[in-house]
Predict the structure.
Amino acid sequence: MTAAAGSIGKVSSADTAVKARQSLGSRIVGKLSGGLVRAVLLVVGLFWLVPTIGLLVSSLRSPQDMSASGWWTVFSEPSQLTVDSYRKLLENGDITDSLVNTVLITVPATVLVVVIGALAGYAFAWMEFPGRDWWFLGVVSLLVVPVQVALIPIAELFGNIGLFGTILGVILFHTGFGLPFAVFLLRNFFAEIPRELLEAARLDGAGELRLFARVVMPLGGPAIASLGIFQFLWVWNDMLVALVFTKSGTQPVTVALQTQVRQFGNNIDVLAPGAFISMVIPLAVFFAFQRQFVSGVMAGAVK
C-alpha cells in the first residue's frame, strides 16, 4: 500500500512538473508570437503610411526642391519645409471652391442616407404593413445594380428636370445609391433589438416616432455611426459620379484636382497640398468616430 502510494505520488509530481514545463513553454511561445505579430503589424502600418507621409512632406516643399530631389531628403535638410504651397492653395479659387462643393455634397448625402435608412430600417424590422417582406427584398435587390448602369439614364432624367450639373443632382444620386445598403444594414441591426424592450416602451405610451427616437436610435448608434462613416468616405472620394453630373462651378475637389493635373501638369505646388487636404479630412472623420465604428462592426459580428 505504501509503495503504491509512493508511486502514485511520484507520477503526480512528474505530471505536475511536465505541466509546469509546458505552461512555461506556452508562455514563452505566446510572448514571442505576440511580439512577432505586433512587429509585423507595425511594419505593415509604417508601409501603409509611407504614401501619406510622402504626400504631406511634398506639400511642404517648394516646386524647385520637389523637381531636384525626392521627398525623403527633407529629413537631412529640414530647411526645405515651407507653407508657401498652402498659401498658394488658398489663393487658388478653383480648389477652395471645390472643397466647399465637396462639403455641400458629402454632408447632405450622408445625413439623408442615415436618416432615411434608419427610418426605413425600423419600419422593415418592427412595423407591419402589406408586402413588407417583398418591399424589403426589392430594396436588397438594388444592391446588385452597378452605378455605371444608371449614369446615362439618370443624366438624361436630370437634364429633363433641370438638375443636371447641380449640386442637388449629385446629392440625390448618392442618396439613391446609398439607401439600399443603408436599409439592409440597419434593418438587420434593428431586428436584433429585444422585442420585450419595445413592447415595454409601447405599454408606457410611446408612439412609433417616440419609440424610434428614444429607444431604437440610441441602441443603433454603433451601426448608424458605421453607416455614416462608410457613406461619408464613399461620397467624399467619389470622382466618377462627379465627372458625369457636375460642371464648372459645382465640381468637388476630386474633379478639380484632376482638372488641375490635366491643364497644369507641373502645378505640383497646388496639387500636393490640395490632395493632402482632400485625404486628411476623411481620415479625421474616421478617427473621430472609430470607437463607434468598431462597436458597430463587433456588434454585427456577434449577432
Observations:
- The radius of gyration is 28 Å.
- The chain is about 80% helix and 0% strand.
- Residues 2-59 form the longest helix (58 residues).
